[in-house]
């Protein structure tokens, strides 16, 4: 059963077995990421009906117990409870949904972060700081020190005194150190490079021409495009997320929500169009993402609805 197959009459009697199937269907749907506003409204309504939230929480906890790897799963005391066959099927489906987009990344990455900023010591003594939901692969040899930015963004403080150049590749482009500390971000729109200390050079492809950047300077490129300089930024504001800060400068509200969502444990969904809301300027704490989301809501005129499984639904506050 999928959420699209659920009964449309909320007053119809529901047996415990059918209620459990409905809860399992909603769990599968939420985990899939294929979420749309009408079905989210239907989920909220379904959850508000008598007995439904309790059934949902029971099935969610059951799935979590089933989905745990055997090495860490806790064995219940006393008599073992039989797990319904359908619950096992739901757990298997959720595992596939979870693994499919991540399996290749896990195979390639040497270091990954989830919802927190992670500081790493690289083999040559350089330091890397990964933003939330980021991943890198490290490939050092006698000719070069190469880092592949596979997802998200990272800041690097390069250890000096090495003959091998230090390069970060992202989306077929290259950012190369010339004695510096710098940040690289890989987004669906392209790659961004920012220098907080020293100097780097940037090329949109391995055979492209170099663009040189000094401290406070920034540039970006799209795959197959060319390097474009952006407005300068104070060096101490570059990669502020390293220190737990999210600096929003004339940022669109939807983009601000997306940035905060990187640091939340549960999924974040936007209902409706937020493009008509005024741009926001704010300094928020990414190490306190729930408070950051609430602060953004207060300043931008948003409403936050929190649901089980850490789900947060963001929408514009209705006009009075």
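-> sequence recovered:
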């Amino acid at each position: 059963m999928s959420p699209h197959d659920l009964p449309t009459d909320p007053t119809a009697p529901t047996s415990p077995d059918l209620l459990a199937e409905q809860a399992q269907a909603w769990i599968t749907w939420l985990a899939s990421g294929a979420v749309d506003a009408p079905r989210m409204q239907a989920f909220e309504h379904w959850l508000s009906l008598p007995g439904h939230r309790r059934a949902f929480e029971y099935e969610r906890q059951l799935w979590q117990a089933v989905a745990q790897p055997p090495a860490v799963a806790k064995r219940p005391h006393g008599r073992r409870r039989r797990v319904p066959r359908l619950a096992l099927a739901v757990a298997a489906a959720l595992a596939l949904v979870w693994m499919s987009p991540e399996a290749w990344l896990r195979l390639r990455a040497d270091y990954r972060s989830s919802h927190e900023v992670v500081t790493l010591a690289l083999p040559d003594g350089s330091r890397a700081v990964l933003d939330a939901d980021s991943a890198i692969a490290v490939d050092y040899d006698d000719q070069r020190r190469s880092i592949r930015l596979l997802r998200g963004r990272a800041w690097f403080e390069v250890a000096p005194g090495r003959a091998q150049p230090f390069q970060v590749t992202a989306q077929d482009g290259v950012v190369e150190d010339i004695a510096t500390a710098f940040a690289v971000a890989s987004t669906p729109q392209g790659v961004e490079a920012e220098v907080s200390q020293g100097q780097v050079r940037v090329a949109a492809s391995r055979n492209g021409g170099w663009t040189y950047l000094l401290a406070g300077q920034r540039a970006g490129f799209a795959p197959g495009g060319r390097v474009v300089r952006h407005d300068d930024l104070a060096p101490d504001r570059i990669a502020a997320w390293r220190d737990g800060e999210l600096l929003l400068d004339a940022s669109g509200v939807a983009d601000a929500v997306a940035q905060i969502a990187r640091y939340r444990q549960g999924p974040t969904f936007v209902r409706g169009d937020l493009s008509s809301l005024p741009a926001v300027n704010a300094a928020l704490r990414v190490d306190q993402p729930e408070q950051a989301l609430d602060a953004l809501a207060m300043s931008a005129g948003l409403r936050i609805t929190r649901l089980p499984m850490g789900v947060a639904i963001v929408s514009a506050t209705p006009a009075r």
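The CA atoms of residues 64 and 207 lie 49 Å apart.
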